[in-house]
Write a structure and sequence with these properties.
Blueprint (H helix, E strand, L loop, with lengths): L1 E5 L3 H12 L3 E5 L3 H8 L10 H10 L3 E4 L2 H7 L2 E4 L15 H10 L7 E5 L7 H12 L6 E5 L9 H6 L4 E4 L5 H8 L1 H5 L4 E4 L1 H32 L3 H9 L20 H14 L8 H23 L8 E5 L14 H10 L4 E5 L4 H7 L4 E3 L2 H5 L4 E4 L4 H4 L3 H7 L4 E4 L6 H6 L3 E4 L33
Parallel strand pairs: 1-2, 1-4, 2-3, 4-5, 5-6, 7-8, 9-10, 9-12, 10-11, 12-13, 13-14
Helix pairs in contact: 1-3, 5-6, 10-12, 10-13, 13-14
Bound molecules: uridine-5'-diphosphate-xylopyranose.
The site of uridine-5'-diphosphate-xylopyranose (UDX) has 19 residues, from α10.
Family: Belongs to the UDP-glucose/GDP-mannose dehydrogenase family.
Protein name: UDP-glucose 6-dehydrogenase
Pathway: Nucleotide-sugar biosynthesis; UDP-alpha-D-glucuronate biosynthesis; UDP-alpha-D-glucuronate from UDP-alpha-D-glucose: step 1/1
């Protein structure tokens, strides 16, 4: 089938490449000529495992092309996927629909044949209905365009796998025939047994925000439990394991630590709150405010604990930060808890040294203050404290004996609960984490300090959300 993918950011680039990979003839469209050039040459403009390979394979095979021209897109196919971003508005919690609206407004008058426009971006419930009116107003006489919503659930770092083998396909449409067409598009996935849920547009839009709200709630729930663990000496990791054995709960998304960030979960729960308020049902989802608050509090707790581990002051201290991206296997630093903590500590005047396997360039742009390193040893040399803030696999492979030889003080704060604390402890490290007691009796510190876990207090670390 011939189709276009409008918007080649994270979602669009992966969707376009995967649609070509399952055999469709795909034209990707973006206003950014630089990005179009990169993609057309088979290069991914961001770090995503597996994407360069399928981009190269499909551009070479001639099944995947890119353009900046919406007119070319209108001419190329009758099926258009809209994958542009819906960021948080700068002045409120709501989603900014400017890009989606611009695509619909731009495309409608260019259509010369009956077409189907399928939105994939995360949007507030009710958007399909308003876009459908908008597109109808822009069409040439005699041309018809249907609009449907088909949300995408891909995770960064697993985007290719999530697109080719999704947990489910959800399509919200009103007109008959839309379902049939999309079943054809996704035929290889359906044949492989992926469940297909055909529904109305409002339900489809809601599935996405509800899923992200649920995941965010799960993370904040376990982080709230981590605070209770800190107050009682209980261990949040064991608690999560024990809870997770209950099949009704499940262990995934119960990893306590620095909390969630990135371009989706934080902005999606805020946009959901804003939309619910517009619909006069804000009270129904007011718990999401607490989910957001608990999440941001983990950043502050981490900074507070770091300060205490350094003897209640960052002044004159050298702090090594392992990880800048919001999660491993990504170079994305949008709303990154790790970078937020690094920023807060750097703002105290401490000497902050950051390492990240893939996110250094983006981190440097977002936060110019700290020193950045491509080598873990360089970042940790002479450190008074090592902060483990993003759980990249390679940090778990660090030899703590070797590392202890180059730091000034062997203290590590594992804010992702991902290091093997027994091994680090045995190598002479003082290991701390959120929601977990000491692995074994604390080794003597040169300065004789007793370190206590802080409770949430003091100024917020993350920028306050409007
Ligand atoms: C998320 C959704 O998972 C995905 O379905 C949706 O399409 C987009 O938003 P993504 O933002 O790529 O995907 O990241 P995800 O893997 O969900 O992690 C989000 C954040 O939660 C990360 O910062 C991660 O470190 C954090 N997290 C995740 C935890 O703190 N604890 C956990 O147990 C799981």
């Amino acid at each position: 089938m011939r189709l276009t993918v409008i918007g080649t950011g994270y979602l669009g680039a992966v969707h376009a490449a995967c649609m070509a990979d399952i055999g469709h003839d795909v034209l990707g469209v973006d206003t950014d000529a630089g990005k179009v050039e990169e993609l057309a040459a088979g290069r991914a403009p961001f770090h995503e495992p597996g994407l360069p390979e399928i981009l190269t394979r499909n551009t070479r095979a001639g099944r995947l092309r890119f353009t900046t021209s919406l007119a070319e897109a209108a001419d190329f196919a009758d099926l258009h996927f809209v994958c542009v971003g819906t960021p948080q508005r700068p002045d409120s919690l709501a989603a900014d629909l400017r890009h989606v609206e611009a695509v619909v407004d731009g495309l409608a008058p260019l259509l010369t044949r009956d077409s189907l426009v399928v939105g994939k971006s995360t949007v507030p419930v009710g958007t399909t209905r308003s876009l459908s009116r908008r597109i109808a107003a822009g069409l040439r006489p005699g041309v018809e365009a249907r609009i449907a919503w088909n949300p995408e659930f891909l995770r960064e770092g697993f985007a290719v796998q999530d697109t080719l083998r999704p947990d489910r396909l959800v399509v919200g449409a009103t007109e008959p025939g839309t379902d049939q067409l999309l079943r054809q598009v996704y035929e290889p996935m359906l044949r492989a047994g992926v469940p297909y849920i055909g529904t109305d547009p409002a339900t489809a839009e809601l599935v996405k925000v509800a899923a992200n709200s649920f995941l965010a709630t799960k993370i904040s729930f376990i982080n709230a439990m981590a605070e209770i663990c800190d107050a009682t000496g209980a261990d949040v990791a064991t608690l999560a394991d024990a809870l997770g054995h209950d099949a009704r709960i499940g262990r995934r998304f119960l990893s306590a630590g620095l909390g969630f960030g990135g371009g989706c979960l934080p902005k999606d729960i805020r946009a959901f709150l804003a939309r619910a308020e517009e619909l006069q049902v804000g009270e129904a989802v007011s718990f999401l405010r607490d989910v957001d608050r608990i999440n941001r509090r983990q950043r502050r707790r981490t900074v507070d604990l770091a300060r205490r581990l350094l003897g209640d002051t960052f002044a004159g201290k050298r702090v090594a930060v392992l990880g800048a991206t919001f999660k491993p296997d990504s170079d994305d630093v949008r709303d990154s808890p790790a970078l937020d903590v690094a920023a807060e500590i750097a703002a105290t005047g401490a000497d902050v040294h950051v390492h990240d396997p893939e996110g250094i360039d983006n981190a440097r742009l977002a936060l110019p203050g700290p020193s950045y390193h491509t080598d873990v040893m360089d970042a940790c040399r002479d450190a008074d404290l090592v902060l483990h803030l993003t759980e990249w696999r390679q940090y778990r492979a660090i030899d703590p004996v070797k590392l202890s030889e180059i730091v000034r003080v062997p203290t590590v704060l594992d804010a992702r609960n991902a290091l093997d604390r027994e091994v680090w402890h045995a190598a002479g490290w003082h290991v701390r984490a959120l929601g977990r007691p000491h692995p074994t009796p604390q080794p003597e510190r040169p300065d004789g300090l007793r370190v206590t876990i802080p409770h949430a207090s003091g100024p917020a670390c993350a920028a306050p959300t409007p």
